[in-house]
Amino acid sequence: YNPNGSIDTSLGSAGSTLVDFEGSDDEARFPLIQADGRIVVAGNAGVSTPVGVDSDFAVVRLMVDGAIDSGFGGNGNGRNHVNIVGRADIPGAAALKSDGTIFIAGRVGVDGGALPNTGLAQFRADGTLVATAQFDYSPGDSHEATDVLVQPDGRILMALTTRVSGVYQHAVARLNADLSRDPGFGANGVVRRFFLDLGVPF
Q: ∠ CA(182), CA(186), CA(187), 5° rounding?
């Protein structure tokens, strides 16, 4: 959009670009603007499997003019996706590191999505996959990342919504640059907090 709210028709085709991964439902969730103006869009892709359509973490890059950047993703089509675990991987946040590295964090459906765990995917600046990680911060209960931030030292912070024994909590987790838990942060890499109805921390 232009600053006045009108559609910027110079982008893509009359102001929009359509990207399809595998013919199923895809969602663009988090646009990230690189220093050179290219647009990285993180979201989820519907991917066909022998048991149906799964949801994967996905990323695509557009040129400044909205054209798909075919040099991104390592497969010539400007996009990439990854299944971390289960059938329902849904991103809750994305971030760019200063060197262009892309992080996507969210929920991963270890059991079809009913009790999700937290998942993280790391892509290089060229869209190729570096690594994925899955974390069980509340064994037997649900949790997911709702925001992600890369610190100047390369460590990664994730804001979480967690549930323990049916009680929802705010939490922050920190990972080392290699996506392992940071044992020096909170209890085994995570700090939790929940609040009573009157707003008094407990």
A: 85
Residue 147 contacts residue 170 (beta carbons within 8 Å): no
Estimate to the nearest angstrom the gap between the alpha carbon of 97 and the chain centroid.
13
User: What pLDDT sits at residue 162?
Assistant: 87
* Cα distance between residue 44 and residue 30, in whole Å: 10
Residue-by-residue DSSP string for the chain: --TTS---TTTTBTTB----SSSS--EEEEEEE-TTS-EEEEEEEEEEETTEEEEEEEEEEE-TTS-B-TTSSSSSSSEEEE--SSSB-EEEEEEE-TTS-EEEEEEE-TTSSSS-EEEEEEE-TTS-EEEEEEE-SSTTS-EEEEEEEE-TTS-EEEEEEEEETTEEEEEEEEE-TTS-B-TTSTBTTEEEE-B-TTS-B-
Could you tell me the mean pLDDT of each successive run of 10 residues in the chain, 202 residues long? Answer: 94 92 90 94 91 91 95 94 90 95 92 81 96 88 92 96 82 96 94 64 46
Rounded Cα gap, residues 51 and 39, in angstroms = 33
Question: pTM for the complete prediction?
Answer: 0.90
Residue 202 is predicted with a pLDDT of 44
Tokens encoding 48 = 């066909």
Q: Which residues pair with residue 49 across a beta bridge?
A: 52
